[in-house]
Amino acid sequence: MKNVIVIVILLFFxxxxxxxxxxxxxxxxxxxxxxxxxxxxKNIKSLKYTGNSVFYIVNDTAxxxxxxxxxxxxxxxxxxxxxxxxxxxxxxxxYVWYITQDTLxxxxxxxxxxxxxxxxxxxxxxxxxxxxxxxxKFRLMYLEKTQKGNAIYDVILLKEGENETKIFxxxxxxxxxxxxxxxxxxxxxxYKKVQGLLIPYEKIxxxxxxxxxxxxxxxxxxxxxISREVFTLDYHIKK
Length: 239
What we know:
Strand order of the largest sheet: 6-5-4-3-2-1-13-12-11-10-9-8-7
CATH superfamily: Lipoprotein localisation LolA/LolB/LppX
Structural class: alpha+beta
CATH architecture: Clam
Oligomer: single chain
Number of helices: 6
Distance between the termini: 76 Å
CATH class: Mainly Beta
CATH topology: outer membrane lipoprotein receptor (LolB), chain A
Largest sheet: 13 strands, antiparallel
Order of helices and strands: HHEEEEEEHHHEEEEEEEH
């Protein structure tokens, strides 16, 4: 009798898991029909962009140029202007450096860990990250169908370690409108087509319903040729 109960429970979980995978794949299939083919997202190996940001809480603005390369480990370089002062932020594959006209220092180990997680192309564009989710370390779970304002959404949970991010897919357009991590909501307000892919160009972030930042990309170049030297500290010190 116990064996029968175990088998029934196992079959239930297998069926539930199968239904969840089908629901996730159905939402993602519609998403990639809307924003571009999976293969095209997979083939993004480097990225260059310009943009500007507004930080409401500290009444601050920044203008930046970012360069990213999906080499193992990921490489990142950003140049910007903040409070009329130019700065550079470099992830050289091992360390994270911060450079201004007056200072040069290596970021703390905590900041380096955060930077290594946040400077991947897949973290800039969820479409890049989700296209081969079955081979990643995170899990996707279909949560529910819900309504925000006049729109209906399929909600998928991205679970990675202790972090759980809700992703809201607009049922009408198929695109991602919102992501929610703890009490931070990111609202993508504008998409633009670049080389056949719909790229999120503008977004606003809220904390407890209060706007905390807004960012806008002004140009994006996909797969530019980038020298490995650009991500070294020596290159920027010489300049």
